[in-house]
Amino acid sequence: MGEWMDESNKALARRYGVFIFVIAGALISLILSFVTEHVFIFAFCVFFTLAMVGVFDITQPNHSLLRNYPLIGSVRWIFEAVRPYLRQYLMEDDLSGQPYNRDDRSLVYARSKNEEDRQPFGTELDTYAAEYEWMTHSLAPTPVSEEPFRVSIGGPACAKPYSASVLNISAMSFGSLGSHAIEALNMGAKAGGFYHDTGEGGLSPYHRKHGGDIVWELGSGYFGCRNRDGSFSPERFQERALLDQVKMVEIKLSQGAKPGHGGVLPGAKVTPEISETRGVPMGEDCISPSRHPAFSTPVGMMEFVAQLRELSGGKPVGLKLCVGHPSEVFALAKAMLKTGIRPDFVVVDGSEGGTGAAPHELADHVGMPLREGLILVRNALVGTGLRPEVRLAASGKVVSGFSMAANMAIGADWCNAARAFMFSLGCVMSMRCHTGACPTGVTTNDPHLQRGLVIEDKAERVTSFHHHTVGALADLIAAAGLEHPRDLLPHHVWHRVSPIEVKPLDRLYTFLAADALIDAPDDTPYAAEWAAADADSFAPRRAVGPRRAA
């Protein structure tokens, strides 16, 4: 019994010893402040504050650890709060950080600031580790191109084709990004000759202020071109789509961060500027449905593409999607064949993409990663003979010339980047994008935090990052003995499968020949998905794979 009491007393001492010491310190310092030096009043203030924290810990009902270990338990929350910063700045090595490691971020920062970006003493990558990749080079390299690489976008039905840079700013909405960030991105795009995608939040005054080329993204909420009930308004769309600054229109079907998921901006966050930009009433929830109300079938989608192209005066109109069911991608291809209507371009967003916040399960486990999604869309277009009429873009973790080259080798005509351009604005990856408290003023509408983002300075960095990254791509193209990124093929990129096995990408993935899905679909790996695809329905016309047992 006595031993049990001793252990119990020791346990109580461990739990409450610090709290009792603080209370005793408060009492002693208070007494000493009256009988000796007044300096003890400062000690009393410290001890008294800690004692009040301890009292709160003991009496609060929500945290068991704090009730059982007053004051001591609070230390856990302090370290938990600072853990991300300690890890990023003190404990992570240069290659282990996620979603972007220190080397990638440092490369963007250096190129944005026109600082030295060359690497001394060889690569830090383990060239014998699985997943290591490299480009093949030629023994007869070509001269490095001095002209920026461009891509012409616009099929036969397009009256106003657009010449795009091979690297552009991916979709980021006003509201998700603050006005200073939007202005800096657009000013940088104007100076660098590349385009700025609005994101689905609408075409704001900040997108238009500096005159940079705009790709207007239409999500399911049709912000900026909607009726009072949220349906699509042709008149309002036409009014803005005819602006000279708007070069292309992009229909967003899904995005990498949260594919298949809608969104709600609470009415309390609908500011007068957001209300004006999006065309939604002040004080009411701003809803982005999970699907488009303007069409319900693949054929209907193609007809919507044709309608937008006509209303915009013949500008290129395309689709953006994160790949989900393969049969739905093939259904889109079948709808193009059935209607004769082609989108001018398709942007494939990888599931690894995303600049804002998303439900954990969707961000981690829904949607196809960029490489597999890009190859699937490439095969759907090539296998149906549509690829010559439809341009293809890649979006997802593009930070360097090599990441661009790898995407182009498997089918992309150009690349879009979002988070890399956020880094060029000064983003430090504090992971507070969704809180409205971004410390660098990028993803916040708080005017006090936005003050830290000087538009003119950051616009120069946006332009500089683009210039140096496209220049790095030009170096790679020349080293491979090629003239243009369009000359890249899958066999130009090799992938290490294991420490003793490497393969070019064309031996790791399936790349269909032209018209393969038309001439002999059963000879392709996509036979079941192709047979299930229906131009008149997003739902498959038959089951793909075995049914679940009853």
From TrEMBL:
Residues 166-482 form the Glutamate synthase domain. It holds the Pfam family Glu_synthase. The chain crosses the membrane at residues 12-32, 38-58. Signal peptide: none annotated. Keywords: Membrane, Transmembrane, Transmembrane helix. Gene3D superfamilies: Aldolase class I. One of its GO terms (biological process) is glutamate biosynthetic process. GO terms for molecular function: glutamate synthase activity. It comes from the Bacteria. PANTHER family: ARCHAEAL-TYPE GLUTAMATE SYNTHASE [NADPH] (PTHR43819:SF1). Belongs to the glutamate synthase family. This is FMN-binding glutamate synthase family protein. The lineage of its organism: Bacteria, Pseudomonadati, Pseudomonadota, Alphaproteobacteria, Hyphomicrobiales.
